[in-house]
Amino acid sequence: MTTTTSNKAFLSIHELSKKFGDFVALSDISLEIYEGEFVCFLGPSGCGKTTLLRAIAGLDMQTTGRIIQAGQDISVLPPSERDFGIVFQSYALFPNMRVAKNIAYGLENQTKQSRSEINSRVEELLALVGLPEQGTKFPSQLSGGQQQRVALARAIATSPGLLLLDEPLSALDAKVRAHLRHEVKALQQRLGITTIMVTHDQEEALTMADRFVVLSDGRVEQIGSPEEIYQQPQTAFVADFVGTMNFLPATVQADGVEVGGVKLDCDLAGINTAPGMTMAIRPEDFNFAISEDTDGNQWPIEIHYVEFLGSFVRLGIHWGADDSIRAYADVSANLYRRLGLHQGETRTVNLPSEHIRLYPAGRKPL
C-alpha cells in the first residue's frame, strides 16, 4: 500500500499500562506512530485496543506511562486540550441537529471563526465526504454509511493533527463497509492526517493500514505492515488471528520437519526448535499445479471434501498416509476447474519450503 508518511514520530507511547482495579487491561505498551501514517490496532474483543485508543484521547487516563504527541507530553492533559478528532462506532451524531449543524459543532465551540467562515468550511467538508446536498437533513434521514461520513466530516472539521477511529465501520452492512473503507483511506491520504483505527476485522486492517499493531491480552504481539504481519507472523497467535492458517504437529529433524509421516525440507536457521513443534502453513500455499520444473516438497494427498466459496475453493485434505492429519488447501475457482479436482481423489501437492513456519508446540491440529 502506497502512502506518504515521514520518518518522524508524531505520536510516541512509552511503557503505557492501564489497570481497572486488579485487572490489567494494558501492560507496558510502547510504540511510535509516524506523521501521516494510517495505523490499525487489531485484536479480538477484550485485547485492550479500545482502551489504548481511549488513553491516547485522554478519555481513560493510563495508570502509568507517557504519551507524546508532536513533541508535547499530553499524558495528563484532559481530552479538551488534546489535538484529535474522533469517530465512534455509534456515530454519536446529535439527532436534534441538522447535518450541517452537526459538522459545525466543533468549529463553533473550539474556534473563533465567523459564521460565514464556518458555513464555508461546512460546505467544503460536505463536498469532501460526498454529501454536498445533505446539509439540511437530520441524521435519521440518512443511511448508516451517510451518517458515518457526517461523523467523519465533524471529526476533521477543526483540522486536528490526529484522527481516531473506534471501529467506525462495524455497524454497516458488508457492501457499504467495503466501499466506505476505501473512501476513508483515500480521504486520509488526501488530507495527510495521522490516523489510528481500532478494529477486530482483519480485512479492514489489511486493506486500510500502512502498519498495524496486533494486540492480545493487553500486550503487543507484533507491529508491521500488512504484508509483514500476514506473511511473517512472529507468534502462533498472530498467525491464527490474521488470515486462515493450518496448524499441524511436527517433529524437527536435521534439515527439516516430519509431519504425518511426510518429510518436508525447510530452513531451520534462527528457529529455537524443540523435539515437538507446530508447523503453520497458509491454505493458499499448497500448489496443485505440479510440473516438471516444480521444486520442493511433494507428496500425495486425498481430497475429502470440497467447499465452494465464490472466487476460490477450499479443499479439505488428508495428509499422506496419516488420515488423522487434516488441513485446508485453497485454490482459485479458475484453477479448480482447470485441474478438474474432485472430492475423494488423490492428488500430488507441492509445498514450497519458504512458506513453512514453525512455532512451539501447543496448537491443536485441525
Please tell me what the overall shape is: elongated
C-alpha end-to-end distance: 33 Å
| Structural class by secondary-structure content | alpha+beta
DSSP helical segment count: 9
CATH homologous superfamily caption of the largest domain: P-loop containing nucleotide triphosphate hydrolases
Defining key terms:
366 residues; alpha+beta; OB fold (Dihydrolipoamide Acetyltransferase, E2P); 2 domains; six-stranded mixed sheet; five-stranded antiparallel sheet; 25% helix; elongated
Topology, element by element:
Layout: E1 9-20, E2 23-34, E3 38-42, H1 49-57, E4 64-69, E5 72-73, E6 84-87, H2 99-110, H3 115-128, H4 144-156, E7 162-166, H5 174-191, E8 194-199, H6 202-208, E9 211-216, E10 219-224, H7 226-231, H8 236-241, E11 246-253, E12 256-259, E13 262-265, E14 276-281, E15 297-308, E16 312-319, E17 322-332, H9 333-339, E18 346-351, E19 357-360
Parallel strand pairs: 3-8, 3-9, 6-7, 7-8
Antiparallel strand pairs: 1-2, 1-4, 4-5, 9-10, 11-12, 11-14, 12-13, 14-19, 15-16, 15-18, 16-17
Give a brief outline of the structure.
With 366 residues, the chain is α+β, with helices and mostly antiparallel strands. The protein has helices at 49-57, 99-110, 115-128, 144-156, 174-191, 202-208, 226-231, 236-241, 333-339, and strands at residues 9-20, 23-34, 38-42, 64-69, 72-73, 84-87, 162-166, 194-199, 211-216, 219-224, 246-253, 256-259, 262-265, 276-281, 297-308, 312-319, 322-332, 346-351, 357-360.
